[in-house]
Amino acid sequence: MTTTPARPPELPARASEPVVRVSCVRHVYPDRTQVHLCGLDFVVERGQRVVMLGPNGCGKTTLLFHILGLLEPQEGEVAVFGVNPARHWNRIRERVGVLLQNVDEQIIAPTVWDDVSFSPRNYGYADAEVERMTREALERVGVAHLRDKVCHYLSGGERRKVALAGALALEPELLVLDEPFEGLDPASRADLVDLLNHLHREHGVTMVMATHDVNVVKAMADVVYVLVGGGEIVAHGSPEQIFRDPDLLRSSNIEPPVLAELFAHLETMGVALGRPLSLDDAARAIVAWGDRNARRVAPTATAASPRPKTESGELRFDFADDAADGDDEKPARPRPPRAPRAVPGDRS
């Protein structure tokens, strides 16, 4: 009879102890490629969503592999839940889940149920407990209907969700993700962002993610670390703090988000609208600016006067004059009235 094993004994965690700490790590690969993850310490607090941004080859995956205990540094320190993961992985293995960049390397069983249930079965859980853990993991990522499907025939987005379900089967406290949006179409990417944020919000899962997709950072990160070639960690802060400096990102060979670059450029032209990073925030900033601009070009209007509109009822904004803030204001040039549209059959 199979019995449910006890989890490996957990070390007592101090309230102030971070989930992950990586300090000035150096690793040399067999081909003598050297990665020196130094500069700033990489620290992940409990419950945070931490994103590493950097170009290909900067050491993001190397850093993740040290966190997972797959690599041990020649220099420096790595601690996960207070232990060296390369030497004491058995103490924390059920507290950490991972989603690899290439999920085909992670899916090893023929069917979805076989793959997601692999870890609970391998750790010796009772059959009933394996069934429960597998079912809940599949339901959590929304693929319970794929339970008996052959993994090979699933779409890329479905395979990624199956791999994520396998990572969540043991209900980990820390989830490590390496380029999780690689190769996904926009709809699948948005779906995965919503799913990961739901896991964080409802279950308090701490997340560490490596990506070079700057457009998902605002929705996915509490803290951002920026890496450059060779592994140096050059900056960290909130998404708003990091994206406030597009030149820093470009110097790290990272393309800034379109919105961050657009509003930075507007600021250099004298139109200071802040640095919104989402479409909703950008729309609100532009509408607020339009309200101010409307009051400037129509000084006789009261504060409660409606914004000027075209004959079709659309709101009208005059963008050209705002960059000349402080110059003598010129009255708005009147627009000639539009000719009325002809109505079919009207001969009057």
Automatic annotation (TrEMBL):
GO terms for molecular function: ATP binding; ATP hydrolysis activity; ATPase-coupled transmembrane transporter activity. It is found in: Cell membrane. Residues 297-348 are annotated as: Disordered. Coiled coil: none annotated. Pfam families: ABC_tran. Residues 308-319 have a biased composition (Basic and acidic residues). Residues 20-255 form the ABC transporter domain. InterPro entries: AAA+_ATPase, ABC_transporter-like_ATP-bd, ABC_transporter-like_CS, ABC_transpr_CbiO/EcfA_su, ECF_ABC_transporter_ATP-bd, P-loop_NTPase. Keywords: ATP-binding, Cell membrane, Membrane, Nucleotide-binding, Translocase, Transport. Belongs to the ABC transporter superfamily. This is Energy-coupling factor ABC transporter ATP-binding protein.
